[in-house]
Amino acid sequence: MSCGKCKMPVAVYEKGGKGNLIKMQVPRIIESEIKLPVHEGHFTCPSCGMLLARKGKYNDNLTYWIVRGRVNTRKLNNYRW
Asked: Strands 29-32 and 71-72: what pairing?
C-alpha cells in the first residue's frame, strides 16, 4: 500500500479473500513505515501527513479502515518477509 498523494510506500499487508482492500488488521500487517505498537492515532503518511486510514476495531483486533481514494494498492507476487 502506498500514499495516493506522494506515492510513498507505507505498508505491506497480507490480504485474505478477494475484492478491494477495505481494512487492515494490525496482526496481518507485515511491514510498516509507522511503528504500530507505539502508534496512538490514525494511519497517516509519514512523508506528507495525509490521513490514509482511521483506527478502529474488528473482531477484537486493532484495525485501520482505509479511506477511499487515498491509497494505492498492488499485488506483490513471491514476496518474502
From this structure: unpaired
